[in-house]
Amino acid sequence: MNIFIILLAFVIGGLCVSSSRQANTGEGPPHPVCDSHSTVNLIPPVAKSVTDVTPLLHGAGVPEGACIFNPALVRLSGDVYCLFARVYTASVPEKRCAPGHRDRAPFLDGWRGKSTNVMVALRLNQRNNSHTLQAEVLGHSYLGDSNLEDGRLFKDTRGRTFVYLALPVGVFPDRAVINSVYRVYSRCSRTSKRCILSLRFPRALTYTGSHNVMDKNWVPWNGTQFMSFSHFGTLGPQSIFNWVSYEEPKPHATFDMVTEDPLFRKLGQRYGSLLHLGGGTPAILEASRHSYLAVGHLKAHPGCFHPEMLPAWVDRGWFGQQVAERTQSRCSHLVQSSNDTTRTEVLKEAFKYRHGDQEGIHYPLEYAFFFYRFNASPPYSMTHISHGFMPYTWRSAADHQGILFPVGLERFGAEDYIISYGDEDQRSLLLRMSSAQVEAMLLPIQEMKRRLDEFMVCTLPCEGLGNCDV
Ligand SMILES: *[C@@H]1O[C@H](CO)[C@@H](O)[C@H](O)[C@H]1NC(C)=O
Ligand SMILES: *[C@@H]1O[C@H](CO)[C@@H](O)[C@H](O)[C@H]1NC(C)=O
Ligand SMILES: *[C@@H]1O[C@H](CO)[C@@H](O)[C@H](O)[C@H]1NC(C)=O
C-alpha cells in the first residue's frame, strides 16, 4: 500500500515535472493557463477573442515601419470608437516594426528613434461567424510633432471626450511628467461616413502632494470628474481627486478622499519590489450602476513567473528546482528565498534575463493585467480584485517578450467589454470578454487578502483558436 502510494506520487510528480519542463522549452503558452481553480465561480475565465488592429492603423498617416502600440479607446457614439495610440519609428530601417516580426521592440533600439502619437476614429463590428472584431477607419489625425506617450480616453459628466496624458519632460535621469487633460474634438458625418478628430486645449492636473516626479497612470472614472491616484507599486489605498471640471481643474495639495484597505499595504510588505501594481485603463460604470470596473497593470520580476530565471542566490539544487517548477505561476518562492538585503538587489538581477539560448528576448520585467472593482458611492471602497493575467494569443513561450500594457476599457454591445492594449510596444490589440467572464476572474478583496501567497499570473485562454490567432 505504502509502496503503491509512493510509486503513484513518483508517476504523478514525473508527469507534472515533464509538463512544466515542456512549457519551459518554449512550446505552449508562456505562463500556466488560467483555470477554474483560480475563480470562485463556475464560469471559466476565458476571452472571447483578440483582434490585432495594427495593420489598419498603418493607413492612418503614420511613418512607414512605425510601431503603433498602447491604444486608448472610448466610444464616440453607436459603433464608432476613438483610439489614441503611441507611435515609435526607429532611426534605422532594420529596427523598424514589420508585420510578422516581433523582435522590433523600441527598447531593443534604446528608444533612440522618434516617439509620436496617432488618433483614429474606428467603426467596430463583430466579424461574421466569429467573435473577432472587424474594424474600419473613418478618420485619423497623426500627431507627428511631439511625444505625448500613453493616453487614456474617457468622457466627462457632460459626455465630452477627453484624453488624460502624463506628458514627459526631460530625459532620464532628469525626467518628470506633467499630468494633463486635453479635450478631444470629433465630428462624424453620417453621409460620408468620415470623422474629423483633433485635440483641443491642454489643462494641467496639478497635484503637489507627492515628491515623485514620475507619478502617472492615474485612473479617470468615465462619466465623472473624478480620478484615482495610482500609488507607485501598490496602486491603493484608493485615493481620489475631484477635479470639479476638466475645463478648469481644481489644483490639489491633498486627496479629496482616501479609503484605506490593508490589502495594498500587505501586498507591499509581502512582495516589496518584486511585484508592482499600477493604474491601467480608466474605470467604467458596471451594468448594476453600483460599481466601477477597471483593469490595472502589474509589473514583476521575471524570476517570479519564469523559474528558469531565478537569480543566483536562490537554491538551485534538486529541491529548489522542484519548488521552482511547481511555483512558476507565483512569486512567493522569491520572497521566501530572500531577505530584505537581497530583495533590494532583485531588480538588478532581472536585467540578466535570458530565455534558453536566446538573449535579450524578454524585457527585464514581466507585465500582466488584473481587474479590480470599487463601489460607485462614497467612500468608493475597493471590493474585488483578480489575479494577474495575460491574453493567450497562441504564441509560444519562446516568442513571449513580456510587455503587455492595458490602456482602454470599453463596452461592446450589451454584454461584452473590450480591453485595448499594447503588445511588446509593437502592436495594438483588442481583447473581447463578456461581463460573466470578467466576473469569473474577480475575487472579493477579503479573499485575496487571505491568499496573498497564492497571488499568480496566468494566461487567459480563448474561445477557440481562430478567435485569438494573432
Ligand atoms: C455579415 O453578414 C451580413 C449578411 O450577410 C452583412 O450584411 C454584414 O455586412 C456582414 N458583416 C460584416 C462585419 O462583415
Ligand atoms: C462613459 O460616460 C458617458 C457619460 O459621459 C456615458 O455616456 C458612457 O456610456 C460611459 N461609458 C461606459 C463604457 O460606461
Ligand atoms: C541576506 O542574504 C545575504 C546573501 O545570502 C547575506 O549575505 C546577508 O547577511 C543576509 N542578511 C540578513 C539580514 O540575514
Summarize the structure.
This protein has 470 residues and is α+β, with helices and mostly antiparallel strands. The protein has helices at 2-24, 54-57, 262-271, 302-305, 318-326, 332-336, 340-350, 435-441, 445-450; strands at residues 49-52, 67-77, 80-89, 114-126, 133-143, 151-155, 161-169, 176-189, 194-204, 219-220, 226-228, 238-242, 257-259, 275-278, 284-285, 291-300, 354-355, 358-359, 366-375, 382-386, 388-391, 404-412, 416-423, 427-434, 442-444, 457-460. It is built from 9 helices and 26 strands.
Features:
disordered N terminus, binds 2-acetamido-2-deoxy-beta-D-glucopyranose, 4-stranded antiparallel sheet, 470 residues, alpha+beta
